[in-house]
Model the fold of this input.
Amino acid sequence: MTQNYFEIFSLPVAYTIDMNSLNQHYRLIQKSVHPDRFITGTDAEKQQSLIKSTQVNDAYQTLKDPVKRASYLIRLHYDKEESGLPPEFLMQQMEWEEELEDANEEQSLQLLSDKIEADKKIIENVLVVTLDEKKDWESALSHLSKLKFLTKLAGKIQQKTFALDVS
Amino acid sequence: MAITLTKKAATRVEKYLESRGKGVGLKLAVKTTGCSGMAYVLEFSDEIPAEDHVFESYGIKIMVDPKSLIYIDGTELDFAREGLNEGFQFNNPNVKDSCGCGESFTV
Amino acid sequence: MALLQISEPGKSTLPHEHRLAVGIDLGTTNSLIASVISGKATILEDEEGSRMMPSIVHYDEKQIFVGVEAEKRQVQGPEDTIASAKRLMGKGLMDIRPEDFTVSLEDSAGNIAIHTKQGLKSPVEVSAALLKRLKELGEKRLGGEIMGAVITVPAYFDDAQRQATKDAAKIAGINVLRLINEPTAAAVAYGLDKKVEGNFVIYDLGGGTFDISILRLENGLFEVMATHGDSALGGDDFDHLIEQWMISDFDTPMPNIKTKQLIKNLSRKIKEGLTEKSEIAVNQSFDGLGTIKKTLTREKFASLSADLTNKTITCIKQALHDADLTPKDITGVVMVGGSTRMPIIQVAVEQFIGMPLLNNIDPDEVVALGAAEQANILAGNTNNELLLLDVIPLSLGIETMGDIVERIIPRNSTLPVAMGQEFTTYQDGQTGIVIHVVQGERDLVKDCRSLGKFTLKGIPPMVAGAAKIRVTFQVDTDGLLSVKAKELSTGIESSIEVKPSYGLEDHQIQQMLASSFSSAEEDKESRALAEIRVDGQQIIAMIESALEQDKNLLNPNEIDHIHVRVHELTKALATSDRALIEEKTKLLNEATAAFAAKRMDHSISKALTGKTINTLEF
Done:
């Protein structure tokens, strides 16, 4: 039987995750399987350690990130990858994009960034309820799409801030 | 008899122990293997095993287990240089024959 | 007669089985070799007591001079003397400024070839000559054969540059335990020696490369959080600015290569002089150029080089951003590389981070010392459980329609990392697909480094779009890429033909290997046989001891199967049939793959004690 990513780190299969345990278990596991531990080992050991160490890194990156974690959790339970966004959110999206376009100094970018971060927090809290309590995968998919968009937008804001800083 | 260090060896050991940041002294022993019967063991020691004989030379503690002592009693540990290579050397009065590599011997 | 070193408790080796491991800092300007001797990382000095070897190779008709001997011949024969060969590693002629080199360079099937009195040489061979000299020195100093080396590379080296370095080691007859990043090695030296913990910025300005790494040091785990840099920025560029400043009053071009070399050397001296003094006066005449009479103050130098300095600070900002940290999260800044001795650099970095710099380990030696520590750990000579988790410095991507790069492995991903991608055919009956792999952060293929073209062959003929080829891009702990492909509907393992954009092909390496050892043919054969025998014996010993410990993880059938393979290999080892031994070794490895995996799972569940873990198969 193949283990899922949560089981690899011996964590409960849930969106709410104990970050400390994840980090700690990740490090303990890498200390056991990392290719550096098998430099003087047999070829079979070297190959297995490369495979396992790679998988553990992949699992860790997935669980560490709220978007990837939610998406992975949904995939474990629900046979659908994407869900449409409500029209009002699409409108909101366009407004945000415009705001980003117009923000050309650090202060306005910071303001926008704070707003986006606050919205992200709200959606993450909604995801806790829909995923861990209601287990409503369909509605979780729709919230996740929003979170994905906001995360991308936050990245764009940071990039723009950074470009200002460099120039 | 006893196990001793030359002054030169003791200075080196002291330096190495200091840079290592821990350790109570040296462990000297023999293993039965190698190209002519027995091989020397030279290690840092982080503890003093109850059954070991403890010698002291220039302030450095040297731990030797009773079995090994039979083969190396009277040994003087020296620090030597050969060409570019430097390291420790066992001057062991019990040795009848050694393999030429200096790391294994017969008694 | 060999002399002994003091081992860590329980780590003594048998005579003739010492695991002598070294760290090598193969630098642009200087190279160093170090090893842990009696518990202490130590630079291995040469016969003259020098701790650094100039990374210079000089070719005359018969001989190859390396290091100081090559440096002596540099002024007289600059056109036969190769310095800074590291800047040419894994590069094409288009990537470099040939005028920076005193030797003449030409293109050879995409790679750089250097004209010497002994014919065309690749930068890999030049580096191999340096490595070989260091290896010989190491073996003399350690009194035995070196089992393996950790070789450092700039964190920002791409796949082609890393591969070139590994090839050079192979030609020099060195077993590479690991390639590690220079800043990471420096962090190891500080972390182990000074026993520090926290978030560290490693600022590494070498002769030809600049790297920034952010590392978290905690509980025996060194995690690289982000890395940034510029593989074409280094101390040499500061020399270059001084050169330009010196000749800026003349409008004639450089009269000859010798004058060029003299001015180059003088520029470096001025730069180094400004570390101690606040100004340096020049009053010297040059053949064919005239007299240069000028004074360079530290302030003037600072303004000349402000752009370069700022470039490095920008890199720190980017790395901090990638690591999600701000300057106030930083516990310390480690300065690496001789160029960080420049006061203008120290002031700029100190001002930006807002804390004094860590430079109590010689910045020229810290990388080699850290590499030696890591080599010692990897070779199994210590009880230290330190583990390094490094990252891939540059994103990997593939070319898609319209010359656009599709990113498959983002930079700063922890190694080892793999990513799968599905491809399909676009024509009926198509049996091959070409995948162009590039490395870099830009969106257009032409702005990234081309690593190579992978041609998938042997796809079963089907209608367009029906084939599903799963391609896996794996980057190992050395930061090197390998590609595997499988047709999903038929399960046929597709063969891959790799055409690297840069670098040597296997047969070229074999040729260089052959020419670097002048031994007779049968000699080589007997050595190869001896090596494979030792390997075979070691594998049997390892597997037997593993069975001893963990027999309970296997069922009797599995144990029998392994025993059969062990027996077969044992029988093969009694013969002189190299091919047979190779085959049986391979079979034994295959037979123990599942056992190896189970043992790893077992050690994981032991590590996570207290938690219930049944079978860990993933």
